[in-house]
Specification:
Elements lengths: L2 H16 L11 H8 L5 E4 L5 E5 L7 E7 L4 E7 L4 E7 L11 E5 L3 E7 L20 E3 L4 H4 L8 E4 L4 E2 L4 E4 L2 H17 L7 E7 L7 H10 L3 E9 L18 E4 L5 H14 L4 E4 L7 H6 L7 E9 L6 E4 H16 L5 H4 L3
Length: about 350
């Protein structure tokens, strides 16, 4: 285990996790990403959609390799302020309403306001707590009256869960929005490693926006770049005691390399070869249909892009206690770097079916 890289990944991922970047509002977290990527990339750029591009030039610069990890997170939005002072809300992205009750949250109004999500207690409910509360029956209590609230909070303000990242035993870390801030850390580790490796082609690491609401940033950035090859970095479901054999991906055994119709077969082969050559652990993840990641949007951009998918095993996806292995994060970054370094100058010829 590379202790220095693990230490760096922990620090950077914690900072990303504990900050805010709900889909469509990624500008709040963008300065942190730009600051960090400036230490490893030669050029930093952004676009009107909020995507961030970190470029590292290759020795020949003959082709463009796109890396993509989304920086947005799921969240909530204020839809109504109750006359009694309670905040009604809706969701942005795939929020599981079962995880919301009793959460501490921050409403990002004219100034940040702390609140708690509450509902009728089971003592007073007809079902006596036998059924999960619906989101329409929940409200956020901020401890203020309607008149006080309306001067600070407006309809449309975003809401995030208030959560500090937690170090678990070993190299595990738990927190919110590790999906897919961990992928952003992977790209940074890759760019750092490429400083010590020879690589022919230009590498553009893109932190994409609005993945959680429709892969939108990947679609626009891939169209703008029109890369010669692309790798999406995201998370995948890691096994837990209750998955009962339905999930076979394990934390701590390396990132997964996907294969299936969303994945170019030559990219899959070259990535597994790179892992074996560099003696880096990996797992194989067959995906028979749509991957549900940025890889899906990138693959069909313009005339089509040879695309791969590298995923990090993660437990409790789309909750505030997502759990991941930092060793998997570091190994994924190193695998990407060695994959890029092994690409031949004749990239098009090597990717032919």
């Amino acid at each position: 285990m590379d202790k220095e890289r693990i230490k760096y990944a922990r620090r950077f991922l914690k900072e990303l996790s504990e900050n805010t970047g709900v889909s469509g509002y990624e500008r709040l977290i963008a300065p942190i990403i730009i600051r960090e990527f400036q230490t490893s990339a030669e050029e930093i750029d952004t676009d009107l959609f909020g995507n961030i591009y970190a470029k590292k030039k290759g020795e020949s610069g003959g082709h463009k390799i796109m890396l993509a990890a989304h920086m947005d997170e799921i969240g909530l939005m204020v839809k109504k302020i109750d006359p009694r002072g309670f905040i009604r809300f809706t969701t942005i992205g795939g929020v599981d309403q079962r995880t919301l009750l009793s959460q501490e949250v921050i409403i990002h109004g004219r100034k940040p306001i702390a609140g708690v999500i509450g509902s009728k207690p089971p003592h007073l409910a007809a079902e006596n707590g036998e059924k999960a509360a619906k989101i329409d029956d929940m409200g956020i209590d901020v401890g203020l009256s309607f008149d006080e609230i309306k001067n600070i909070i407006q309809i449309g303000d975003i809401i995030t869960v208030k959560r500090k990242a937690v170090d678990l035993l070993g190299d595990l870390i738990a927190g919110k929005s590790l999906d897919d801030r961990a992928g952003v850390v992977v790209m940074q580790i890759c760019l750092q490693e490429l400083q010590y490796l020879h690589h022919a082609h230009d590498v553009i690491a893109v932190t994409t926006t609005q993945e959680e609401v429709g892969l939108r940033g990947a679609l626009t950035s891939a169209h703008a770049l029109n890369p010669d090859l692309a790798i999406a970095i995201d998370v995948t479901h890691g096994s837990t005691p209750d998955t009962k054999g339905n999930v076979n991906i394990e934390l701590g055994k390396g990132p997964t390399i996907a294969l299936g119709p969303n994945i170019h077969p030559a990219v899959y082969e070259r990535m597994t070869d790179a892992a074996l050559d560099a003696r880096l652990p990996y797992q194989v993840e067959p995906i028979a249909g749509m991957s549900g990641t940025d890889a899906w949007a990138i693959q069909v951009a313009q005339a089509g892009v040879p695309t791969g998918l590298l995923s990090l095993p993660l437990r409790y996806m789309h909750t505030s206690v997502e759990t991941i292995s930092l060793e998997d994060v570091v190994n994924a970054g190193l695998l990407l770097a060695h994959f890029i370094a092994r690409l031949p100058e004749d990239l098009e010829g090597s990717l032919c079916y």
